[in-house]
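Study this chain:
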Amino acid sequence: MRLRSVAALLVGRMLKISLRLLHRRGTSLPGLVMHKVSRTLLGDLLRQLDTLVIVTGTNGKSTTTALLHSMLNGEQDHWLTNEGGANLQQGLLSALMAYANWRGKLVIKRAVLEVDEATFPHVVRQCAPHLVVITNVVRDQLDRYGEIDHAMHLLQEGLRDQGITIVANGDDPLATSLAMGRDLSYFYGMDQSASQAAMGDEVRDGAFCLNCGSELVYDHFMYGQMGLYRCLHCDFAHPNLHFLGTIQDETGLSIMECISWRQGHEAGRLDFHVSASVIGLYNWYNVLAATAAARILGRSPAQISRGAHAYKAPLGRMQVFAGPPQRILALIKNPTGANSVLRAMMEDVCEKRVCFAINDLDADGRDVSWLWDINIESLVANAHICAWYCTGRRRLDMALRLKYAGVDPASITVIDSLEFVGKYTSQSTAPVYVLSTYTALYALAGYLQAGESA
């Protein structure tokens, strides 16, 4: 390793220690400083890996990565990962630093990393991944990514190498288009029994065929643009699935695997069951994505089942704080992801409360117009909400959005500071769903954890 890169690691470690002494998180700051010291450090570390698995896409990266790491990591087979969900270049550097010795040598040579779409092409240029999981592609932060075409271009650039194995969400036409026509592509999707009625004017980003531009026809929807689709004007259609998931109950997923993809096997099927502590259809998609990747990487159904059972939700990914009252912390950052969380809330038939924590810092996206694409109206009509709370820098914008969705202003409480969320939401025993953007997430988790242990 270059001397400058070794020096950068030393600086990063010293900064990490300083941040701990100051009781600061510093998930990405050490990586940012290390990159300033050595522009080649990320490549120097990545090229030491024997196996690199990347999870990318718009929604579900953190949960899928955590599930896949739990399925792959074992006593005799260690894998490293970026547990904090910091998926930009500086976050990856901070994560890899923890596994490097004083000479800059990685002590673990297999990695499953969550990588942001914008960072994905740069990472692939540094080290060719063995396998890439594409969870979905939907419209995200407009001021960062622009329209969805830009995100698609970034992913296409990173997937130019035909030797990369791809595991893609076959129910998403955009993810499918990235993997279609390649020899090393495998698709997963849900059985139509998981199909759900559309949430009013729900945003669907993959409404048109990328081959000919015609509108896609859907036989059924799962959520957002996920479903069984086909183009009437060309041959683009929902692919044959290698992994089909059927939700059996609240904690179980039945998986049918088409085993003909494995060399030396005739056409056939393998059925097995996976249980995990997840909430919502969109999270079962993440379980299915991780399972498909783990199978292709050689894990047995028993190993996958053990890993899924041991999985713990990452910070803010439908993370449950026992209370009382019980609070469920969920990240929201775009219309499709937010609507998926709202769906999960509507499936919970109990009376509940909801708190929106909306910030507009760089990591959140300065443009909060996406709040008007969230289907609050369906939530108001179907979710048995008895109280509403708004906090964060854009709390008044969110309160206005609720008013126009038909929420009685008298039932909306505006909380000036995140630290008071625990206080205001403790005045009733009804569970609280706390929906938060990125920069409010860690602070809220700390306050909720403190309230849980009080």
Observations:
- The CA atoms of residues 280 and 343 lie 7 Å apart.
